[in-house]
TrEMBL record:
InterPro entries linked to this entry: Orn/Lys/Arg_deCO2ase_major_dom, Orn_Lys_Arg_decarboxylase-I, Prn/Lys/Arg_de-COase_C, Prn/Lys/Arg_de-COase_C_sf, PyrdxlP-dep_Trfase, PyrdxlP-dep_Trfase_major
Cofactor(s) this protein cannot do without: pyridoxal 5'-phosphate
Presence of the UniProt keyword S-adenosyl-L-methionine in the record: no
The species this protein was found in: Bacillus haynesii
Residue span, Orn/Lys/Arg decarboxylase C-terminal domain: 403-446
Keywords: Decarboxylase, Lyase, Pyridoxal phosphate
Domain of life: Bacteria
Family the UniProt entry places it in: Belongs to the Orn/Lys/Arg decarboxylase class-I family.
Domain Orn/Lys/Arg decarboxylases family 1 pyridoxal-P attachment site: 3-309
Name of protein: Arginine decarboxylase
Length: 480
């Protein structure tokens, strides 16, 4: 299996060259002794744009060859390595299609990086409210009717941004939505951060590229064996200005990209390609079923899946809920106390991301211990009635950014915040989906949920005053 970039790095490392270039560890020659044991191997390939190692921002050698192999595997017109995570891909693809004042349609449960991109572009977002799965009690996908309605109201939108799958691995057929958007010459931009492994085909959902998406961003590091921050961006359409997209990638990504991260992207592609060529996906499916069975043996816990039959559940994602009514956060603490670290928790369940070919499985004794801990742990909180998202399917911010800039701000207690315009984003993390966006009108339901999350000691990205149950809001009067 070809790994052009990784192979070039290994060949250089084995050539016993003298380093008189950056980085400052000089192939591991200069390093803190106490840490060298863990780092020394990777330091040998932590290189820079040396002769024969190409340049990410103007690739013509081994990096270009590695990227071309990615595009061939995924069926894209062109693929790009991202060393700043899917965040930089989301920023670049939105900046590539939006100018200040443009309208862009965006799924409301997108990652915060999507909203940051819209803010940087100066575009005006129109939010598409996702469906809520009754069993999971989480936002899932956008209905076709919602997109149809949004396009009828905003036919000149410059793009539509979708999240596929959602964080919980819920995927639906995107083809009808993409075809509807394309009939109006609206490009579809997909944050497929959790779907890089969909290239393997059954039993996994379909790639959004195959459904016709114009630009797709994937976090290879989330589900393939790539290093953290290693991601792909796939360009698949002439509706997107390729040079503008490449320009923003060069502006937003580091001018000193990590070669170990890029090499891991090369390796992750080779790994996925090898799985396909050796027909190991059927074995992976069996192993995932077996691993689910292991967790299903926990007394006092149950595996939960979406109720909506339109949703295909990614088998790498496993949600577990307490049968006794514990919150997901309480359940997460029990798992962590026994050496199992879930990806995230919400108010009802924990989410595990299963490995494609992982060898480590919890022992029966550990599964039994976790079951006993669940039974013996007192339930602290009841489940909430709702999750605090708007009932309207197509919504816009009440003011444009230039109007908001004329408003003063003040801090108010949560009890006085409902009905006001938030001057700050409030983002539970993970998953990094804003509960409240700056410029959004705050609802009673949102305040109720935010209060619960704070009482549950959930990690929330926002101002320090949130812990005092205060929010910064706009005073809706123009400055004199």
């Amino acid at each position: 299996m070809k790994t052009p970039l990784y192979t070039a790095l290994v060949n250089h490392a084995e050539g016993h060259h003298y380093s008189f270039h950056v980085p400052g560890h000089h192939n591991g020659d200069v390093f803190f002794d106490e840490a060298k044991t863990f780092f020394e191997t990777i330091l040998k390939v932590d290189l820079t744009e040396l002769t024969g190692l190409d340049d990410l921002h103007e690739p013509s050698g081994v990096i270009k060859e590695a990227q071309d192999l990615v595009s061939q595997l995924y069926g894209a017109e062109e693929s790009f390595f991202l060393v700043n995570g899917s965040t930089v891909g989301n920023l670049a693809m939105i900046l590539a299609v939006c100018q200040p004042g443009d309208t862009i349609l965006v799924q409301r449960n997108c990652h915060k990086s999507v909203f940051h991109a819209i803010e940087l572009s100066g575009a005006h977002p129109v939010f598409l409210t996702p469906a809520i799965d009754e069993t999971m009690a989480v936002p899932t996908h956008i209905l076709y009717e919602t997109v149809e309605d949004a396009i009828s109201q905003y036919p000149h939108a410059k793009g539509i941004v979708l999240t596929y799958p959602n964080y919980y691995g819920h995927a639906v057929d995107l083809k009808p939505i993409i075809e509807e958007a394309h009939q109006h010459d609206i490009p579809v931009l997909v944050d497929e951060a959790h779907g890089a492994h969909f290239v393997l085909g059954h039993p996994f959902p379909q790639l959004s590229l195959k459904a016709g998406a114009d630009v797709v961003v994937q976090s290879a590091h989330k589900t393939l064996p790539a290093m953290t921050m290693g991601s792909y961006l796939h360009l698949n359409s002439s509706r997107i200005n390729r040079d503008r997209l490449a320009y923003y990638l060069s502006v937003l990504q580091s001018s000193s990209p990590s070669y170990p991260i890029m090499a891991s992207l090369d390796i992750a592609r080779a790994y996925a390609e090898d799985l396909l060529k050796t027909n190991r996906t059927a074995d992976i499916e069996k192993e995932l079923i077996n691993l689910r069975e292991v967790f299903s043996q926990i007394n006092g816990a149950e595996i939960v899946e979406p109720a909506d039959d339109r949703i295909q559940q990614d088998p790498l994602k496993l949600c577990i809920r307490s049968a006794y009514g514990h919150s997901g956060f309480e359940l997460k603490s029990i798992f962590e106390a026994n050496g199992i670290h879930p990806e995230l928790a919400d108010e009802r369940q924990v989410l595990l991301i299963l490995p494609l070919e992982g060898k480590n499985k919890p022992a029966p004794e550990l599964i039994s211990t976790i079951g006993k801990r669940i039974k013996d742990t007192v339930v602290q909180h009841d489940h909430p009635a709702g999750i605090g998202i708007p009932s309207e399917k197509v919504t816009a911010l009440p003011y444009r950014k230039n109007k908001l800039s004329a408003f003063k701000k003040e801090s108010v207690p949560f009890a006085e915040a409902a009905g006001r315009i938030s001057a700050e984003p409030v983002i539970p993390y993970p998953p990094g989906i804003p509960l409240i966006m700056a410029g959004e009108r705050i609802t009673k339901e949102t305040i109720s949920r935010l209060t619960r999350l704070i009482d549950l000691n959930v990690h929330i990205q926002g101002s320090n005053q949130l812990k005092q149950k205060q929010l910064t809001v706009y005073i809706e009067e123009e400055k004199s």
